[in-house]
Write a sequence for this structure.
């Protein structure tokens, strides 16, 4: 299949970019990042501080449409990319989850951020870019009973994209090489002239590769504030590291202490990525919100090879 990203690699556009886990995974899978957007200034600073590829736009996603993105990329690419409707190979997007997350005691179906889940579908699809494929990610709380009305509305918007087929499945990042057991709602939307949606097969989970001690050899045990039962680090893996702080404590052979930021970087597959210019709270938020990079690589590699057939 031919692409129009200006080189031999398929193009990827990232919404709600954050620290860029979805985009980084796509880049590892052979995609060329050309555009990313997020409303959070910290996300933009992290993007530029780490010399990420493509163009970043800090913007309120409620104000963005497909034409704006196409015009923005074309005007800033020194005439090497002239985007048109239906040119984009892949859109990756994980809209804000606070209104749906089961760990949020104030979650509500009426949280205005929930509406972004539908807006991302429209911008990626027929009312926006007309992308060949889109991957949307969300927390499993989307399937909880309190979210029933929102789920109905999201499915209605997906059904309205009549040029597309879609599939929805809950996948766990641990099954695709991540170090965290992290369930995520995974929606793959594929334009009908391109192919059929699908998902990569889960891979065996080996403790020798994903246990906490295999990743951080100096850690002997860990526990969570909400559950004080300690677990040995050599034969257990951690759960989702959250953006608000998860109460994860580790025993390093000397003392019990909160897991530090550098250890979080390693457990988030961000070794070599510099977040030191930010406060610890912002670093924890960036990492807690991100999609795990090996998971993103597996999803986007499947999309490239089996759907786009690059």
């Amino acid at each position: 299949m031919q692409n129009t990203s200006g080189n031999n690699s398929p193009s990827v556009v990232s919404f709600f970019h954050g620290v860029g886990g979805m985009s980084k995974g796509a880049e590892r899978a052979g995609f060329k990042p050309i555009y990313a957007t997020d409303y959070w200034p910290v996300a933009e600073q992290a993007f530029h501080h780490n010399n990420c590829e493509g163009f970043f736009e800090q913007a309120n996603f409620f104000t963005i449409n497909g034409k704006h993105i196409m015009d923005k990329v074309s005007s800033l690419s020194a005439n090497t990319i002239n985007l048109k409707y239906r040119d984009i190979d892949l859109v990756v997007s994980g809209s804000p989850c606070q209104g749906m997350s089961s760990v949020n005691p104030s979650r509500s179906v009426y949280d205005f951020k929930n509406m972004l889940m539908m807006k991302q579908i429209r911008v990626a699809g027929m009312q926006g870019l007309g992308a060949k494929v889109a991957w949307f990610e969300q927390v499993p709380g989307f399937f909880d009973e309190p979210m029933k009305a929102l789920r109905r509305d999201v499915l209605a918007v997906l059904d309205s994209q009549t040029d597309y087929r879609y599939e929805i499945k809950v996948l766990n990042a641990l099954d695709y090489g991540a170090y965290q057991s992290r369930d995520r709602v995974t929606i793959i939307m594929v334009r009908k002239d391109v192919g059929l949606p699908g998902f990569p097969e889960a891979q065996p989970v080996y403790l020798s590769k994903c246990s906490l001690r295999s990743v951080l050899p100096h850690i002997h045990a860990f526990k969570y504030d909400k559950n004080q039962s300690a677990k040995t680090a050599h034969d257990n893996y951690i759960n989702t590291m959250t953006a608000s702080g998860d109460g994860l404590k580790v025993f390093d052979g000397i003392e019990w202490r909160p897991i530090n930021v550098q250890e979080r970087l390693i457990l988030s597959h961000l070794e070599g990525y510099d977040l030191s210019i930010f406060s610890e709270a912002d670093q924890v938020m960036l990492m807690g919100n991100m999609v795990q990079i090996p998971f993103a690589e597996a999803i986007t590699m499947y999309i490239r090879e089996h759907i786009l057939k690059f």
